[in-house]
């Protein structure tokens, strides 16, 4: 959660520091609790976007590892 997102959550314009800290504590508390909820889908236990459920049958265990790419999946390089 970036600082700009925290600034958007300011409710009391007279004391923005307290509102920012309150929003950060709420966010961190929900994130921490979300790591331990087994029956609720959270960012920590949700399946991958392109998970087809299949396992590769490779001879070497090195090639059987699944990997997730870095970066924004929506951006593509155009070579025009």
TrEMBL record:
User: Could you tell me which Pfam families the record lists for this protein?
Assistant: DUF4218
Region of interest (Disordered), ranges: 45-80
DUF4218 domain location is: 5-50
Alphabetical list of PANTHER family matching this protein: DUF4218 DOMAIN-CONTAINING PROTEIN
| Protein name listed in UniProt | DUF4218 domain-containing protein
